[in-house]
Design a protein that fits this description.
This protein is mostly beta strands. The protein has an 8-stranded mixed β-sheet. A 5-stranded mixed β-sheet has the order 1-4-5-6-7, with no helix packed on it. A hairpin with a 2-residue loop joins strand 17 and strand 18.
């Protein structure tokens, strides 16, 4: 504003030009200022409008900060970090989103449960090495809450990972990939660091306009033979089945494709699922939505598309609902009567069963005689194996050894290979009721169900 004042004053000082010339010049300057005034006022009113530009590079040091309206951009220009407001909200959050696509897609939120209500937020490094978010009162509303670093820096990587590290030793102190919100990106781990007890899982937004913690979570369950679940609160909504060497047994769509690689790591130190891209021209993310759906999204980066393609989702049908047909009931989404009992079994509650309520499951027609060998195994194909939370597993056993182990245990109800690779390897067997069974048109595996020989129509063996 001082600049304009100096220009007007200069014209006023030149009386030799005449009063008319002075008035013309003064009037012109007022016109210019009048045109600029709305723009200048909007700058003061909305920093996000006038100052939406990145600070130097992708890194915050002790002498830098990210204020509302400023951003960090990863070195390759893939991701951006800054303040944002959801669709119909005035609350401000620190988040990470894709930089080069036209539709803003948030993949991570720092202060999801502690919004800032104005544009006063500041993201900075504290002297103790923590990345902190301050409000107008300079109160810490969010922090990385890690041990001290001597010379900390925070850097947004081109993977979408925000990392706090010691710049002298390059030792990582904290990373956003260890604290996901609702989205899994390529290279992220969904699961456990067994040495530290860290569990990485996805949690939905509360709703489309509110990134606070929602009702639905997706993560890896360590019990028995590990598998992934969607939980609604404490209740199970969906089960992926265990990793069978190629994919989760309940996700035949994960089979070999030209876009994505899938992996599941199980060691003494780590237990996690991850994915990567085969083709760098694609973007992909796995998101736990506020409606309880797990969506796999794809986009070709060079298409500049206004929307993501929905490549896969779960649960997708009645048979994806956990325990849809009760104990021993087999769900078949292609059948007119979705819930079916296997050979040798009958509905526990026939009336409700034929009214299409299969939650009661099935019971044996004849109990098998374990001690006298009056039983056999019914071979079921194209199956999603039962819930493995309580299953026994031995990865080194053959299928024949697995059968022998099941025969030796009178409580054993079924067995199967733990892996479908190399023609089938490893052993799974169950000693309780079989829960959450379904059949696929393709992509399942064999399951051997123990039952009385008379119901198999076979001789005693």
């Amino acid at each position: 504003m001082k600049k304009w004042g100096r220009i007007i004053s200069t014209h006023q000082s030149y009386k030799v030009k005449g009063q008319v010339e002075f008035e013309v010049e003064t009037k012109n300057m007022r016109k210019i200022y009048g045109c600029l005034q709305p723009f200048l006022l909007s700058c003061f009113a909305s920093l996000a409008f006038c100052s939406s530009r990145s600070i130097a590079g992708d890194t915050i040091t002790l002498n830098q900060s990210v204020t509302d309206g400023k951003t960090l951009v990863s070195s390759g220009g893939t991701f951006e970090l800054g303040f944002f407001s959801p669709n119909n909200s005035n609350n401000r959050y620190v988040g990470i989103w894709y930089k080069r696509i036209p539709v803003q897609t948030i993949v991570w939120v720092a202060n999801r449960n502690d919004p800032i209500t104005d544009s006063s937020g500041v993201l900075k490094l504290s002297k103790d090495g923590n990345l902190v978010l301050l409000n107008r009162l300079e109160t810490v509303v969010w922090s990385t809450n890690v041990s001290k670093g001597e010379n900390p820096v925070a850097q947004l990587l081109d993977s979408g990972n925000l990392v706090v590290r010691d710049d002298d030793t390059n030792l990582s102190l904290w990373q956003s990939f260890d604290h996901p919100t609702h989205t899994l990106l390529p290279g992220m781990k969904l699961g456990w660091n067994l040495k530290t007890g860290l569990n990485r899982f996805l949690t939905s937004w509360k709703n489309h306009d509110d990134p606070s913690t929602g009702s639905f979570t997706f993560g890896v369950d360590r019990r028995g033979y590990p598998q992934a679940f969607i939980w609604n609160g404490k209740g199970i909504e969906y089960r992926s089945g265990p990793w069978n060497g190629l994919q989760f047994s309940a996700v035949p769509e994960m089979g070999p494709n030209y876009i994505l690689n899938f992996s599941f790591t199980s060691t003494a130190d780590e237990l996690y699922y991850s994915f990567s891209l085969k083709n760098d021209s694609y973007l992909s993310r796995l998101t736990m939505t506020s409606s309880g759906k797990l969506w796999r999204f794809l986009m070709m980066e060079d298409e500049k598309s206004e929307s993501w393609s929905r490549f896969w989702f779960a649960p997708k049908d009645q048979c994806d609902s956990y325990e849809a047909c009760g104990p021993y009931g087999i769900c078949n989404a292609s059948a007119s009567l979705v819930c079916q009992c296997p050979t040798g079994f009958k509905p526990r509650d026939p009336q409700n069963w034929y009214l299409r309520d299969g939650s009661g499951g099935c019971v044996r027609k004849t109990e098998f005689g374990c001690q006298n060998g009056d039983y056999g195994f019914l071979k079921l194909q194209d199956m999603k194996v039962p819930d493995t939370s309580q299953a026994f597993v031995n990865e080194s056993m053959s299928l024949q050894e697995c059968e022998a182990a099941c025969r030796r245990n009178c409580s054993c109800t079924a067995y199967a290979n733990s892996k479908v690779t190399e023609g089938g390897t490893g052993c799974l067997y169950w000693t309780s009721e079989l829960i959450d069974l379904r059949v696929y048109t393709e992509g399942g595996q064999y399951l051997y169900l123990r039952m009385a020989a008379t119901d198999l129509g076979k001789m005693k063996f």
